[in-house]
Every structure is written in C-alpha cells, then in structure tokens.
Amino acid sequence: MTFVANLPLVSTIKERCRVCYTCVRECPAKAIRIVGGQAEVLNDRCIGCGNCVRVCSQRAKKVYSSIEQVQALLAGRKHVAAMLAPSFPAEFEGVEYRRLVGAIRMLGFAGVHEVAFGADLAARAYRRLLDETSRGNFVAANCPAVVGYVERYHPRLTHRLAPIASPMTATARVLHEIYGPDFGPELGIVFIGPCIAKKSEATQKGVRNSMDAVLTFTELRKMFDDAGIEIERADPVEFDPPEGGAGALFPITRGLFQAAGVKEDLVKCEIVAAEGRTGFVEALREFESGDMRARLLEVLCCEGCIMGPGIENAGPLFRRRARVGRYVREKMVSFDEKKWSAWMERFSDIDLGITFRSEDRRIPHPRESEIRRILLRMGKARPEDELNCGACGYDNCRQHAVAIHQGLAECEMCLPYTIERLRSTVKELAVSNEELARVQEALVQSEKLASMGQLAAGIAHEVNNPLGVVLMYAHLLMDKCESGSPVRDDLEMIAEHTDRCKKIVAGLLNFARQNRLVCRSTNLEDLIWRGLRSMQIPDNVKVELENNMGNPVIDVDGDQINQVLVNLLKNAIDAMPNGGRLTIGLSRADGEVQMKIEDSGVGIVPENLRKVFEPFFTTKYMGKGTGLGLAVTYGIVKMHRGDIRVESNADPAAGPTGTRFLITLPVAGQVE
Ligand code: ADP
Ligand code: MG
To answer: Of 272, 239, 302, which is closest to residue 104 (Cα–Cα)?
Structure first.
C-alpha cells in the first residue's frame, strides 16, 4: 500500500493568501510551490501533516472536507459505525465523554467505538515484533504523515516501516469482523480524529477491511453545529464494545511504548521516539544514514496526535496531555480487565499486516555551477551576499536557490533581492518621470506655438492683399508724380513702410509653416560660409566651423535654411557685444543631420527660454529687434520636419554660459 495522497488534502484559498512564506517554512515535505507570488500545495508531494494549515494566520489553507461523504454514508447504509480517536479528550475538554458519544449518535451513527482498542491490538503487535529480535530495525508506521514521508522522501526505508496496521485500520478490521457478517456492504465505518493525513490513509485502494471516510474533529464540530446538536445537552451513552485499554495513550508521544509495555531506552538507544516537524525529519535522516541504530523508531509528525491539525481547541501541549492522561486514569477505575482480555483474546489472530510501497518524489539536486548561477541572479555574487535571513521560507540562500532550480520557488521570494529591485525601479521611475515632465512641457510649448501660428497665418493672409493694393497704388502714384515733387518723397515713404509690413507678413507666414519649400540637394557647409560672408562679423568674435559629417549634402530648401542660419548667427553676434566665440557644428546620427550654433554670449534667462520662439518676443530695443527671427526659424525647421531646441544658462548662479541652438533635420524621407 502507499499513502501517497490521491486526494487534494490541502489547498490554498488564493484570496486569503498574503504570501508570507510561513507555510513554505513549516512544510517538512517541501510540498508548497510559489508561482507568480501564489502559494500552491503540490498534491503529489503533500504528506497531509497539516503544518501549513496550523501556522497560516490568514486561514488561507483549506482542508479537504469529508462531511458530504459522511452524510451520504449515514443516509445510504444500514449500519454506520463511528470510531473515535483516543486524542478526543484533548479536543473536547471538560466534556463528559458519554455525552460526546451521545451527540455523535444523534448525527445518525449506529455505534461509537474507541480506536483505543485498535491501538491495544497494534501495541501487542509491536511488542511481538520487538520480541522477534532477528527481524531488524523498524520505523513505527502509526503516523500516516510519517509513512507518506518515508514512501516519498526515504524510499529506501519503505521496507523498514513496521508492517503493522495503524490503530485506525486495526479498529476498522475489528469492526468488519464484528458487523461484517450481519451487514456486509451495508456497513459503513467513519474514523473521527485530529489528523488530516488519515484521510488519505482511508482512501488507499486494496487495503482490506478499512474505513470509508475520515472526519477531523473540526468537521465533527461543524456537523454538530449544522444539525443544531449541543454536546452538553446530549443524553450520555457508553462507548460500544470492545472497550479500549492502555492504547488510549497512543496519541501522546511514547504512548505507543507505554501501551506496548516497552521503554524508551536512553542508554542503549534501542527504542527511540522523535516528534515534531524538524525532529522527525532529522530522526529519519539519521536512521537512514545508520547514525541511529534504534530497533524501533517512533516518529510522529506532530508533537503527538493531540497536537494534530484537525483539532480546534487551542490549548497548550501539556494541558492536552494531562486531559488524555486523566481520561485514561478515570477509565482505568471502572476498567473491566477480564472483559478486555476476552476481546484481546478473540482478536489474537486478527491480521494486522500491511505492506508499503515507495513512491519516490525526490527531485534531483542541481549542480554547484547551477546553484551559483541562480544565486548570482538574486544578486548574491559573493558568500557574504548570502544573508540567510530565512524570509523566503527556506533555511538559507542555497536551499532557496536549490528550490528555484527544482521549480518550487521564485527569486522574488528573496526579501533583500526584492527590496533592491524595488529601489532600482523607484529610481527608474523617477528618471522616466523627469523625462515625461520634459516631454510634456515641450508638447505644451509646441501646441502653444501651433495655435499662435494659426492666428498669425489668419492675420497675415488678411493683411497681405490690402498691403499689396497699397503698395501698387503708391507705385502708380509715384509714376504719375513729376520728379522733384514733394509728394513723391511721401509716397516713397509709404511704399518703403508697406514693403516692411509685407516682410513681416511673409515672416509670419513662414512661422505658421504656410510657405512652400523648394528642396534641392544643398551643401550645408557652403551654405554656412555664404551666411557668414553675408553678415559683418565683428573682429572680436572668433568663428569656428566643426564639420563632423563628411559630405554635408542634404535635400533642403537652401534659401530658407540660409535664412535660418542668418537669423541664428545674427542673434549670436547680438548676444556677444564684447566679442566671444561662435561655434558652428555639423554632425550626422540616426538618419538625422544635427546643426549646432553655439555662442559664448550673455545667455537667456530661464523664464525667457520658453518664449524665444514666440513671434514678436524680443529683449532688444525698438527698431533693433522685431522678435520674428526665431519664430521664422522655428517655422522653417518644422516645415522641414525637423526640430529645434535651445539650451542656455543651465545654472544661472554660475553666470552667463552662452547659448546653444540645436537643429535636427531628417536626411531621408519627405519634406513638406
Ligand atoms: P530678435 O532678435 O528680433 O529679438 P529673435 O526671435 O531672433 O528676435 O530672438 C528673440 C529673443 O531671443 C531675443 O530678443 C533674445 O532675447 C533672445 N535670443 C535669441 N538668440 C539668442 C542668443 N544667441 N543669445 C541670447 N539671447 C538670444
Ligand atoms: Mg533675431
């Protein structure tokens, strides 16, 4: 037989799980996998010890419920017997046991039996096994979680499991002998106890004369509640025979020895007891390695069945022991040894044999290089980076790395790793936030310029035609004027200023990107020299041209780009009344040409930086500046599908730092 679970004994309620990894830490079988930050109980690894159920503060672990199955049995079979585990006094503290028996009967059970009698039979079988000294060393098989653990994780020890049925199975076989002849398939047997793993023991196929279902005390209480049964008010009823004896001590560690009349021998270490999550794992390891030479090792997954996960009562260990002890003492007062011996005699030949089958669930250990690689991924390059803080639920970083390799864990479970990642994410977020703010500001700026452009274009169109008429008539009148006429000077004045107006209008149209481009392949370097030659560069201004783009020929509207250059160069010279350095750079990157015009002049104060491209913004005196230069420049660059940026006075406290205009123009692709 094998106790490998075929029931989903425990599962996680996802909504409740807060991923604290306590269940990972407490699981002796490493049967809890964390995937995508969620804890999942692996059915084929779970031994049903219920540690995870007990330690989960969020009550996020659900135990497989057998209530419906039991109700179906009660409704469908003629004789359903309950058998009560000897740990019941630890659960039903202060309750007169006869009332508990009465209450169980009220649920519809035909009889209530003591598993303590099966424990007596099992104890006798252990005694016999120990008497046959030639049979070697054994691990007691009374704890189903331990049996499941051995079958999966110490498969080589499977044949060392004592071939003796548990008290539960022993009692079930007794009941089959007593009631089987009368009821046959109409007999139902339900075990009620503190254990989750028993549920899987009960469902093992091919185990003759076993039980039909297993209820935990928690489930029994729920059935009482649902049926409106109050134990204290139930009529007292005695247990059905056969009566249990010292087997009632079974749920206490070393209870087996006491019931079997053997003593744990600390000198010879022939008979050893171990219990609890870490104790039993360690004991089995030593037993397998041969470090422990016990003839009989009694291992209990819990600190005795009285601490089982199916117990609701939260009382402490020694109080529970005292309850069970007191119950046994009180029973012994009225104990009818004769009757008991007769029962023992009747079942002296009952078959308590049982065999086990290994189900190896060990996962191969990764190679050292693999462990190192995973540790490195978690930022643990050196041994001192391995903090072994245990926050992940594993004892140390290496075990965590092994579990990651085995597909049971994730890097994110490592607290220092996650904190480090959060830190760098916060940093990245701050950077992208800054970037976002910058882009947003640029967007607002270009939207503002676009709406200004619309306005400017509207005005320019409207004004353009009347200006043309004024200019034409001024010239017509001039033609009619005799030379030397005083009116002629006035007319010339009108024509000259109308001309100026027309230029402003043309500038506005440029800003609003309303003009057409005539693109030809143009040598930018030539264009720059031509621009420089067309203006008067003061002697105290040193000009430098850095051409980093080899052959500087691209498709642009030469006249318009010339105007861009002239506007920028003029501004740069204006900004350096006492002379300085003027640098023009050409470079090419990512399908774009970049043109840089940098001066060492007075700079632009931060509050003006965002205004310089607006039409009519000027800081120059009347008549010197129109504030259209950069607006026109902006329009021309945008018409070329390019971009223009200005950088100046990054740190006003440091004094004038000059100004740099950066223009990018696409090399390939269409221009308007
Ligand atoms: P204008 O030159 O007619 O004033 P622009 O549109 O060419 O108009 O320039 C607008 C304003 O931008 C200028 O008045 C000046 O305040 C500022 N500016 C432009 N270029 C520079 C520069 N290289 N250095 C300092 N300030 C500049
Ligand atoms: Mg200007």
So the answer is: 239
Q: Which two tokens stand for residue 376?
A: 């490195």
- How many angstroms separate the CA atoms of 400 and 389, rounded? 11
Mutate to test the pocket of ligand 1, among 630, 637, 647 (most ligand atoms within 8 A of CB): 630
Asked if residues 541 and 573 have their Cβ atoms less than 8 Å apart, the reply is yes
615-631 pLDDT per residue, tens: 889 999 887 888 999 99
Cβ atoms < 10 Å from Cβ of 154: 21
* Pair 576, 601: CB distance under 8 Å: yes
Contacts of 348 (CB under 8 A, 6+ apart): none
- Provide CB contacts within 8 A for 622, sequence distance 6+: none
Cβ contacts of residue 70 below 8 Å, gap of 6+?
190, 213, 215, 219, 223
Cα-based angle 302, 306, 310 (whole degrees, multiple of 5): 80
User: Does residue 130 carry a pLDDT above 50?
Assistant: yes
DSSP letter, residue 594? E
Q: From the DSSP assignment, how many helices (H) and strands (E) are in the chain? A: 22, 18
Q: Which two tokens stand for residue 454?
A: 């619309």
What are the tens digits of pLDDT across the range 383-409?
999 999 999 999 999 999 999 999 999
Task: Give the number of the ligand closest to the Cα of residue 628.
Answer: 1
pTM for the whole thing? 0.69
Torsional class of 587: left (φ above 0), alpha (ψ -120 to 50), beta (otherwise): beta
**Binding pocket residue ranges, ligand 1, CB within 6 Å:** 567, 571-572, 575, 599, 601-604, 612, 617-620, 625-631, 659
The pLDDT of residue 5 is above 70: no
Query: To test ligand 1's pocket by mutation, which of 452, 504, 563, 571 has the most ligand atoms within 8 angstroms of CB?
Result: 571
**pLDDT tens readout for residues 463-507:** 999 999 999 999 999 999 888 888 998 999 999 999 989 988 888
Identify whether the C-beta of residue 379 lies closer than 8 Å to the C-beta of residue 417: yes
CA of 653 to the centre of ligand 2 (A): 26
Within 154-204, where are the H helices?
Answer: 167-183, 197-202
Q: Kindly give, in sequence order, each residue whose CB lies less than 8 Å from that of residue 317, ignoring residues fewer than 6 positions away.
A: 303, 304, 306, 307
- The CA radius of gyration of the chain, in Å to the nearest whole number, is 47
Q: How confident is the model at residue 314 (pLDDT cuts 50, 70, 90)?
A: confident
Nearest-atom number in ligand 1 for the CA of 632 is 6
pLDDT given for residue 650 in this prediction: 63
What pLDDT was estimated at residue 549? Answer: 86
- Strand pairing category for 271-275 and 296-300: parallel
Distance 571 CA to ligand 1 centre (A): 5
Highest mean pLDDT among 280-289, 437-446, 642-651: 280-289
